[in-house]
């Protein structure tokens, strides 16, 4: 569910994750720790995920 929401939000430019077309890409892993569930856990998790991914920046690397 969260993955679908993140894909639709376009929080990550998937084209920018490509290192070599059709061969290598950057992989992102997102871990969400729920400290308390007083309701709306899915909403909060999605908001946190999208905010984290929009804030994420990776260094440009050159393939040798």
Automatic annotation (TrEMBL):
Keywords of this entry: Cytoplasm
One family name in Pfam for this protein: RNase_PH
Keyword Glycoprotein: no
All residue ranges annotated as the Exoribonuclease phosphorolytic domain in the record: 2-57
Cellular compartment(s): Cytoplasm; Nucleus
GO BP annotations, alphabetical order: exonucleolytic trimming to generate mature 3'-end of 5.8S rRNA from tricistronic rRNA transcript (SSU-rRNA, 5.8S rRNA, LSU-rRNA); nuclear mRNA surveillance; nuclear polyadenylation-dependent rRNA catabolic process; rRNA catabolic process; TRAMP-dependent tRNA surveillance pathway; U1 snRNA 3'-end processing; U4 snRNA 3'-end processing; U5 snRNA 3'-end processing
GO cellular component: cytoplasmic exosome (RNase complex); nuclear exosome (RNase complex)
Molecular-function GO terms, alphabetical: mRNA 3'-UTR AU-rich region binding
Gene3D superfamilies, sorted: GHMP Kinase, N-terminal domain
Major subcellular location class: cytoplasm
Coiled-coil positions: none
Cell inner membrane recorded as keyword: no
Membership in a protein family: Belongs to the RNase PH family.
PANTHER family, alphabetized: EXOSOME COMPLEX COMPONENT RRP45, EXOSOME COMPLEX EXONUCLEASE RIBOSOMAL RNA PROCESSING PROTEIN
Protein name listed in UniProt: Exoribonuclease phosphorolytic domain-containing protein
Highest classification ranks of the organism: Eukaryota, Fungi, Dikarya, Basidiomycota, Agaricomycotina
């Amino acid at each position: 569910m969260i993955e679908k929401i993140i894909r639709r939000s376009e929080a990550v430019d998937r084209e920018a994750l490509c290192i070599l077309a059709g061969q290598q890409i950057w992989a992102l892993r997102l871990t969400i720790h729920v400290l308390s569930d007083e309701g709306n856990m899915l909403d909060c998790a999605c908001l946190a995920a999208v905010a984290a991914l929009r804030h994420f920046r990776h260094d440009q690397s050159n393939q040798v």
